[in-house]
Amino acid sequence: METKTKNHIGRKIGRIRELRGMKQETLAEELGISQQAVSNIENSEKVDDAKLEEIAKALGVTKEGIENFSEENVLNIISNTFTSNDSSTINAINVQPNFNPLDKVVELYERLVQAEKDKVSYLEQLLKNK
């Protein structure tokens, strides 16, 4: 059963589509076929090369990328990308800003003060012209 799942091209297409955040309807539209046809492709163990090339293009991957796709590779990429030195959850959740928030507040305050100064000078100019 393990080898059957590994070589099931339709499941690979479906999983790549899901990882790309694409619905079956969207893929169907890209390919000019019905959603039901996409569902049938994803349930097929084999897909002919020309159709696979077309699907790969619509998914933004290569034909070989689909053929060699494995869930294990994706999980390895994710775990290598989001590593944490402590036992907390994924590092991406613990992202710290690389700027001082207080600096941003001061910058915003200075821009607001400058805008008020510009407004006052504009109004003074209007009063002088009358």
Automatic annotation (TrEMBL):
Keyword entries, A-Z: DNA-binding
A Pfam family per the record: HTH_3
Domain HTH cro/C1-type: 13-66
Presence of keyword DNA-binding: yes
Annotated protein name in UniProt: Helix-turn-helix transcriptional regulator
